[in-house]
C-alpha cells in the first residue's frame, strides 16, 4: 500500500432486504468522502459511520435511478446540507450535479472517472477509481451476471455494448464492485468476468436472447420509487 | 500494492441466513488457498469460486466451533481430499491440524499467525496475516461488538483479556474481518474498534456487566450443530 500516493478509505456496506451494496470512499489524506448508492433505510447507519471515521461527505452519488430500493441521497442531504447529489446526465431524475462520459468527480486528492454504461437504464454510470484500480459498476455488471433490461429504458443490445466497451476494456486486474449481489459475493475482477460471467461471455445475439427470456417478476418497490422521485430529489 | 512481496487474493463471502462471513485467501504467486469459516450451505458456491479463480485449497480453517451455523469443512474435504481441516487446539472438536498460540498456518508464500482468543469459546483463534496488515477475528471481536459469552465455555472476563491483549495490541491500521455482521458492515480497523466498539471500550467490570445482562435467545441451530460434531469432523 505504501506505493499508493493517496490512500483510500473504503467501506462496502450491505442492505440485506434488497441485497444492495453501498460504498463509502474517502480520501485518506483530506478525509473528503463520497457515498455511492446509499439506501434510504440505512442512512442513520451511514451517517454514524461517517462521523466515527471522521470523514466529510461531499457527494451522495447514484450509479442509476433505482427500481429495487429508494436512494438515501435526499435524506443524507437533509442531515448534511453541504453534500451534493450526483447522477448520470441521461438519468431523467433530479440531482445537483449531472455527470457525463469522461467527467471526473473529485473527493480530496482522489477522483472517480465517469463512464456512461446504459442498457439497464439510460443514465447508468460506472465510476472508475484508477489510482486504486477499481470500478463501481452499479447494475450494468453484477458478479457473474448483469442488471435486468426489461423496464426503465432497458435494452440488452445497449447493455452488451456498454459492458464490453466501458468495463471489460479496463485493465484485467481492476476490481469490480457491483450495486447488488444475491449469492454472497462481494467483489470480482475484469479478468474473472471476462472468463466466467454467465451472460456477458456469450455473443451479442445469445446475450439478447437470454435477457429477453428471463421472465422476471416486476420489482416490488418500483411503484413506491416512482411516487418518490416525482416529488423529491434522488 | 506493488510494494507487497506476495500478492493476496481475498474474497469476503456472505451467508445471508446466518449473517456469516467466509473468507477465501490465496497466495497470488503459488495459488495455494485457505477458506476461513466455510458454511455448509455454501460449499457448492465456494468450490465453484475456487475453481474459477484457479486456486488450490490446502486448508479449511475455523476460527472456532460454531453454534450458529454448520461448518463446510467436512464437505469441502470430501470434494477436495488434499484439503486439511484446521482448528484451535483447545476447541474440543476433531480436526486434522490443531493450532496453538504463535503457530503459523502457511499457504503458498503467505502465513497466518494464530492468536488464541478464548472467551466466546475456549478454542477461539484469531488469524493474523501480517504481510497484508489484517486479521480474521471470528466471533471474538465483531464490528462495534463481540460474540456472546453465555454458552459453550463463554466467559466475559476471558474475552475482555483476549481482545485487549491479542487484537487491540495489533497496529492501529490493521484491518479486522469478523465472522459475522448483522448491520451490513464488512470490515473495521483496530483504531476504529479502540474508539467506537460499544462494549470493549468499557472497563472490564462494565463489560462483564453488559455481557451478563444481554438475555439473548438460545441459538436456533445449536442442537443441530452438537449432533453433527459428535459424528463428523468440524
From TrEMBL, chains A, B:
Any single Pfam family the record assigns to this protein: Lactamase_B
Lineage top rank: taxon: Eukaryota
InterPro entries, sorted: Metallo-B-lactamas, Mito_Persulfide_Diox, POD-like_MBL-fold, RibonucZ/Hydroxyglut_hydro
Residue intervals of the Metallo-beta-lactamase domain: 19-180
Keywords, sorted A to Z: Metal-binding
Protein's name in the database: Metallo-beta-lactamase domain-containing protein
Organism listed in the record: Clavelina lepadiformis
Amino acid at each position: 500500500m505504501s506505493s499508493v500516493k493517496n490512500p483510500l478509505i473504503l467501506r462496502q456496506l450491505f442492505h440485506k432486504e434488497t441485497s444492495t451494496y453501498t460504498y463509502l470512499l474517502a480520501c485518506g489524506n483530506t478525509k473528503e468522502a463520497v457515498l455511492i448508492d446509499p439506501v434510504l433505510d440505512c442512512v442513520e447507519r451511514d451517517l454514524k459511520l461517517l462521523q466515527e471515521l471522521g470523514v466529510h461527505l461531499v457527494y451522495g452519488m447514484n450509479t442509476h435511478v433505482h427500481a429495487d430500493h429508494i436512494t438515501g441521497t435526499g435524506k443524507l442531504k437533509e442531515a448534511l446540507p453541504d453534500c451534493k447529489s450526483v447522477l448520470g446526465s441521461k438519468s431523467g431524475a433530479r440531482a445537483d450535479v449531472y455527470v457525463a462520459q469522461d467527467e471526473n468527480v473529485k473527493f480530496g486528492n482522489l477522483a472517480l472517472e465517469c463512464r456512461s454504461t446504459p442498457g439497464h437504464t439510460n443514465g447508468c454510470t460506472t465510476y472508475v477509481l484508477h489510482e486504486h484500480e477499481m470500478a463501481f459498476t452499479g447494475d450494468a455488471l453484477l458478479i457473474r451476471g448483469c442488471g435486468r433490461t426489461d423496464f426503465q429504458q432497458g435494452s440488452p443490445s445497449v447493455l452488451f455494448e456498454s459492458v464490453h466497451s466501458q468495463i471489460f476494456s479496463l485493465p484485467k486486474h481492476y476490481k469490480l464492485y457491483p450495486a447488488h449481489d444475491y449469492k454472497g459475493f462481494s467483489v470480482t475482477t475484469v479478468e474473472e468476468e471476462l472468463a466466467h460471467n454467465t451472460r456477458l461471455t456469450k455473443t451479442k445475439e445469445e446475450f439478447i436472447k437470454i435477457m429477453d427470456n428471463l421472465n422476471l417478476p416486476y420489482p416490488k418497490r418500483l411503484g413506491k420509487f416512482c411516487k418518490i422521485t416525482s416529488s423529491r430529489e434522488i
